[in-house]
Amino acid sequence: MQELYYNRGDGTRYGLSAWYLRSKRGLPFLSTDYRDDVTILNEQREQTLRAVASWEQLRERLKLGAKLGYAYTASAYDFRQRNAQGAQSDLTLSRSYLHTPYGQFEAEYYVGRRWLFTGNVALHVPMVDCSDKSPYHEGDVYDRYRVELSGHLSAKWRPTERIGLAVNLRGELYDRHAVPLIPAFFFDWVVSERGNVVLKASVARNYRYPTLNDRYYQPGGNPDLRPEHGFTYDGGISFALGGEAEGYTLRGEATLFDSHIDDWILWLPTAKGFFSPVNIKKVHAYGVEIRADLAASLTRELKINLNGTFSWAPSINEGEPMSPADRSVGKQLPYEPEYSATATGRLSWRSWGLLYQFCYYSERYTMSSNDITLTGRLTPYLMSNLSLEKGLSLRWADLTLKGTVNNLFNEEYLSVLSRPMPRMNAEFFIGIKPKWGTKKR
């Protein structure tokens, strides 16, 4: 990662940012696959680049900004096997390249202390080339691009110090299709300044058109997909206690949400061994989300941070049966957990840090009928990770050394049917932040 900025001193700033990732990893076999991994190669490689040039100008009531960027991702998946005579057979040689140049312009304008107007226009041109070079998948190739233009306008009004209102309008064009205008309305009310208790509510129209991968990815893409559309309603309450003087901060939030989405896009496993997306005519997703954060200074050098989340989120298929044998209506969507929770705790002392992460996922069904016979159910699981890190300050750079133990209690679990996830494993990270431009003394 690298970021460079130049401040001209009159409210104008120029920036260049780049992020590059290169990875190579082996993938686990199916749990029903008993072949020797010495004769099998099951590997995924990826290179990703993100580069952005930015310009910002800040005036008393006006803020302007523009970005020009380029995103590139190249991914390769190889599945090869060697027989007893040593001959190699390429079963899958998938190659995918994604190029996305984009540009964006945005503006913010304040009218007194009561009004804030914002707007932006963005242009993206994703270009995707995907193919499988193995002899078993000849003809599995697509080379597509799409022009995506979007615009967004927002007006925020605070008639009193305790009440805020906002309206957003978003419009999009992709290929030769125009997305219907997408409105959203927001309301917040500071019920009590003591504890900063705030009530919030919103209603928004949803619209999501299929991505190029949804339509054309090989294998599994579905060019006949229809866009998702519907409405989402939510309301909640938040609070904030403490501060620097008290030596702690405690924040919490609870939200109720209710969504009605038509033509929901869902990737489902097929009999051919890969996933493919389909439209579900009507989905009702609703539930509760709760979050809490605590930060406290136990002593001058010893600090603790705790945060936790809980979610109850049924996602029910309320469409019509696709056939007389279809038993999915009224059932939870496959691979969507109804309950989930996370907890994170961090203890910091001087340049040391100890981090514990916990997550929980309830059972997930693998079949749209929610039939739990045979392999129709993935059992609930708990996951724990533990990390220890140390910061070092050298004359030429700041270093961070971090060791992590994932799956601390060696949990055996699946995220996708027949795809075993790693048992206890360890990682080690080295972070280097050079002190470029720092004068030596």
Describe, in plain words, how this protein is organized in 3D.
- This protein has one helix at residues 212-216, and strands spanning 2-7, 12-26, 40-58, 62-82, 88-111, 115-124, 127-132, 141-145, 148-157, 163-174, 177-192, 197-208, 228-243, 248-269, 275-297, 302-312, 315-317, 339-349, 352-361, 364-365, 377-378, 381-393, 397-406, 414-416, 419-420, 425-434.
- A hairpin with a 4-residue loop joins strand 13 and strand 14 (248-269).
- The protein is built from one helix and 26 strands.
- With 441 residues, the protein is mostly beta strands.
- The strands form three sheets. The protein has a 22-stranded antiparallel β-sheet that branches.
- The longest helix is centred in the middle third of the chain and has 5 residues, at 212-216.
- Helix content is 1%, strand content 67%.
Tell me the structural class.
mainly beta
Largest pleated sheet: 22 strands, antiparallel
Broad shape: globular
List SSEs in N-to-C order.
Answer: EEEEEEEEEEEEHEEEEEEEEEEEEEE
> Which residues form runs of ≥5 with pLDDT under 50?
none
**Total beta-strand segments:** 26
Strand proportion: over 45%
Average pLDDT across residues? 90
Alpha plus pi helix count? 1
The Cα radius of gyration reads: 26 Å
How far from one another are the termini? 27 Å
Report helical residue fraction: under 10%
Classify the oligomer.
single chain
How is this fold's topology laid out?
Blueprint: E1 2-7, E2 12-26, E3 40-58, E4 62-82, E5 88-111, E6 115-124, E7 127-132, E8 141-145, E9 148-157, E10 163-174, E11 177-192, E12 197-208, H1 212-216, E13 228-243, E14 248-269, E15 275-297, E16 302-312, E17 315-317, E18 339-349, E19 352-361, E20 364-365, E21 377-378, E22 381-393, E23 397-406, E24 414-416, E25 419-420, E26 425-434
Antiparallel strand pairs: 1-2, 2-3, 3-4, 4-5, 5-6, 5-7, 6-9, 7-8, 9-10, 10-11, 11-12, 12-13, 13-14, 14-15, 15-16, 15-17, 16-18, 18-19, 19-22, 20-21, 22-23, 23-26, 24-25
